[in-house]
Amino acid sequence: MLEQNPASVEAPPLPSFDTAWAVFLDVDGTLLDLAERPEKVELRPGLIRTLKALRRVVPVALISGRRIADLYRLFAPLRLPAAGQHGAERCGADGQAHRTVVAEAVLGGARAHLLAWAHDHPGILLEDKGLTLALHYRGAPHLEAEAARVTRETLQWLGDGFMFGSGSMVYEIRPRGSDKGRAITEFMHEPPFAGHVPVFVGDDITDEDGFAVVNRLGGHSIKVGAGPTAARWRLADVMQVLAWLDRYVQWVAAQRPEG
After folding, report:
1. The CATH number of the domain where 167 resides is what?
2. What's the pTM value of the predicted model, to 2 decimals?
3. In a 3-state reduction of DSSP, which class is residue 68?
């Protein structure tokens, strides 16, 4: 159950910086402001510079609902270890790729059904990520209930290998067992993350599995924005996230002996 943390993002205070951290970052709503369509997001000035600096001082990975290929394009030329499609695909620091196997023929039928429904409802966008399907209703918020219904209806055709998910104005179908908590767990068993204290920053319900895992591992879970959450700390918005990461990079650099 999610804890009913106070809506204020100013309390509790943030965790004390530590050189032993491994930092895991959600993307949309955490590093990037949300946009009406996924392809319309914009990187804030200095974001790439901040991520490059962060990577130089501690292990860092992106944990996103986006495809890894899209993350690489979005943050080019920077390539960080990443989990995409909520952990259905993952690329470690060694470049090794891991992908959940899905029945393409089965998922293809679901894709066609949702695409036809989206075509008949202006403002609805079906995002086909290959292993997952995301039905966005940000452009038609009045269709929220219908979008949920048609997603659940489609899921029934797919059997036990897939599950229903929800995020910020989106409903999803993804492989069962794929979530951000599992992705973080897998990273924590690999170098350079193993032996570090996990820190995960995210903004919506798809990040709650990650928060739960980080809490269990004795790390720091940080929710961006208001709302109920299992996270133990908060930041107000994307701007605060980036400023906090900059402060952390500067703090770690200051701990290193000169020369």
Report:
1. 3.30.70.1020
2. 0.89
3. helix
